[in-house]
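User: Please fill in residues for this 695-position structure.
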């Protein structure tokens, strides 16, 4: 260790406060340590026993050569939405900026917290010439909410403040927006409680189901015998558990023998018999009574054909007694005959009637228990324990083979509108590494008009289509309903354009017409390190309207509707986009040139520009009348020199004291810059020599 405890104690007494006087922990707790006329700045926590000089110097400490007795580091903080201006002013006795916006301590704020620092010395020698460029210290973001209990859309809180409150437990609408570094984003207004619908009847509790196996029906057959008796049906299951077959055997559908019919018509006249003998003439008979006139008969006439009974009733509102129409959509039409008392009566099929069985007319005579038969277990698992009396065949088959399914979830997605603005158009005439003080030209800046995009308002999840009313009628097979944006308009915003050079705003303008938003050409002198030219544009917002979406009823797989399976009504809404932004930036790096006589012993020449604070592998020619020489800006201090051992191929430490240091002034980009000139003062290297010079 280069510094003993007693020396370290003296250093602490000079730069530290009494409460941190602890020789064992000083390196961990102090920011600055003074030793032998130099001040060392800690870059991070330093392990106990690691001195500010020696091998660990580069890793843990920054070395300041100071003639002053002490130094102070000024720290300043400010809160700002945009990039703040660099602070100014301050002194050793008062190490704070002159600007009121910069504070000596960090503090909480709603925007971005920025940080800057500057080193001051007691006599002003070798202190920082200006405050560091502001650096972002925090990122602040939080959510703001408002609540409303209005039934209809209350609008956004900014435009309709009377409709909203900050806190409540009873609300219908909620408005949410985020605030990032003090910038308030667009309100997102949503309804959280739907309008109350009519209460439906409570259904009977369902039975617990059991796990089943997936199966398909391979075939279904039916037979009808000609026996007489009480009608019944026998169902037979067959096939495998994955491919089932079903047969329905209908028995006793033939009726009992009917009553004796009326006397038949007189038969045909028989053959004429042989002529008999002529008998004697009888007495004259009495005249008979005249018979009653019979009624004129009418032929059966089909007046027309209709697809359904409903259509017949609509198309023929005032029928006459005996009017007859065929009803149906195929050739096996049902005949409906109008009776003034009974109305339209179905008289069965005409045409190819044998090809069609009216399942609605085949009724179960007696209640059929589902127990003990080959299908009973399967039907019981499905909740079918009996087939009721007077159920028709259509109902029986539907209960056996069909389960009504409704969509599980209807999803609403609100429409959106988004505004964008293209990045500004800007160029600079330099790139890469340039000398400090080089004049850089920044082109004029222009922008182009922004644009907008929308997405539809949408209800999805109607797996089996939907209906506009709860009427068991499917109106559409579409699985979703979309509403496009209308009334798309520009806001009253203006386009805003600004330009910053190395963090300072140098130009800004605004106009509603993007063609009028321009910034002229400008120049600046490059400073050391990174130079950044940035242009930011703020575009205009857009608004649009999405029309009302009424209630839609989701259809089941059977095409039915139910009050419990419907969408919520979505009122018409007007949306406004967030403020669009964009940016473009260019950078160049300013560096000081270094000089050597490495190439020609008699001439000091400029080395290639580099951003590194070292000269690696500088190969000097054999010494002649002039010694090996290099020049670096006076602000830098050489920390080590290495020389290449040509025998081992390795670099070895070389005393800095073997170079004599002098000062001179060199013009860099037309300005006088103080340089240090290092000239070798020893001998012993007759041939070419390669150095690594670190500063």
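Assistant: Residues filled in for all 695 positions:
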């Amino acid at each position: 260790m280069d510094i003993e405890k007693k020396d370290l104690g003296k250093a602490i007494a000079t730069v530290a406060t009494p409460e941190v006087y602890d020789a064992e922990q000083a390196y961990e707790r102090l920011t600055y340590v003074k030793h032998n006329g130099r001040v060392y700045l800690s870059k991070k926590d330093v392990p106990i026993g690691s001195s500010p000089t020696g091998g660990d110097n580069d890793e843990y400490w920054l070395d300041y050569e100071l003639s002053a007795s002490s130094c102070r580091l000024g720290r300043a903080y400010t809160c700002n939405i945009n990039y703040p201006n660099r602070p100014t002013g301050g002194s050793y006795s008062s190490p704070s900026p002159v600007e009121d916006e910069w504070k000596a301590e960090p503090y909480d704020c709603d925007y971005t917290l920025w940080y800057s620092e500057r080193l001051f010395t007691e006599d002003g020698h070798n202190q920082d010439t200006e405050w560091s460029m502001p650096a972002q210290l925090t990122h602040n973001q939080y959510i703001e909410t408002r609540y409303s209990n209005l039934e209809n859309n209350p609008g956004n809180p900014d435009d309709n403040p009377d409709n909203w409150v900050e806190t409540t437990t009873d609300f219908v609408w909620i408005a949410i927006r985020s605030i990032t570094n003090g910038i308030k984003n667009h309100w997102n207004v949503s309804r959280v409680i739907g309008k109350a619908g009519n209460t439906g009847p409570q259904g009977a509790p369902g039975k617990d189901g059991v796990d089943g196996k997936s199966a398909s029906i391979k075939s279904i057959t039916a037979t009808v015998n000609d026996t007489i008796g009480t009608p019944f049906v026998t169902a037979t299951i067959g096939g495998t558990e994955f491919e089932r077959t079903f047969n329905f055997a209908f028995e006793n559908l033939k009726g009992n023998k009917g009553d004796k019919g009326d006397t038949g018509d007189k038969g045909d006249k028989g053959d004429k018999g042989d002529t008999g003998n002529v008998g004697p003439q009888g007495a004259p008979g009495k005249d008979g009574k005249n018979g009653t006139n019979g009624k004129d008969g009418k032929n059966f006439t089909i007046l027309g054909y209709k697809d359904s009974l409903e259509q017949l009733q609509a198309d023929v509102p005032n029928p006459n007694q005996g009017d007859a129409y065929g009803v149906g959509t195929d050739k096996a039409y049902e005949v409906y005959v109008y009776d003034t008392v009974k109305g339209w009566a179905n008289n069965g099929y005409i045409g190819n009637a044998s090809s069609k069985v009216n399942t609605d007319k085949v009724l179960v005579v007696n209640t059929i228990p589902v127990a003990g038969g080959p299908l009973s277990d399967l039907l019981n698992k499905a909740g079918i324990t009996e087939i009721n009396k007077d159920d028709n065949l259509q109902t029986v088959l539907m209960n056996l083979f069909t389960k009504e399914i409704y969509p599980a979830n209807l999803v609403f997605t609100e429409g959106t509108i988004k505004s964008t603005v293209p990045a500004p158009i800007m160029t600079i005439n330099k790139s890469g590494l340039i000398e400090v003080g080089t004049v850089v030209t920044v082109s004029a800046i222009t922008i182009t008009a922004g644009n907008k995009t929308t997405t539809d308002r949408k209800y999805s999840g109607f797996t089996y289509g939907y209906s506009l009313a709860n009427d068991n009628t499917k109106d559409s097979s579409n699985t979703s309903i979309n509403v496009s944006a209308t009334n798309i308009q520009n806001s009253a915003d203006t386009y805003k354009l600004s330009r910053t050079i190395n963090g300072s705003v140098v130009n800004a303008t605004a106009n509603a017409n993007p063609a009028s938003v321009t910034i002229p050409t400008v120049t600046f002198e490059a400073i050391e390190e990174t130079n950044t030219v940035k242009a930011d544009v703020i575009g205009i917002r857009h608004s649009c309207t999405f029309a009302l979406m009424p209630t839609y009823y989701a259809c089941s797989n059977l095409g039915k509707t139910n009050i419990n399976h419907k969408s919520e009504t979505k009122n018409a809404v007007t949306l406004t986009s967030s403020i669009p932004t964009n940016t473009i930036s260019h950078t160049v790096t300013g560096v000081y040139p270094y000089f050597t006589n490495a190439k020609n012993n008699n001439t000091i020449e400029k080395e290639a520009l580099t951003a590194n604070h070292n000269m690696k592998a500088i190969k000097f020619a054999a010494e002649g009348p002039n010694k090996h020489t290099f020049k670096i800006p006076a602000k830098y201090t050489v920390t080590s020199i290495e020389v290449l051992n040509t025998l081992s191929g390795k670099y070895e430490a070389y005393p800095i004291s073997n170079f004599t240091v002098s000062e001179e002034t060199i013009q860099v980009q037309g300005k006088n810059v103080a340089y240090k000139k290092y000239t070798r003062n020893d001998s012993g290297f007759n041939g070419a020599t390669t150095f690594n010079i670190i500063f």
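For context: The chain is about 5% helix and 40% strand.
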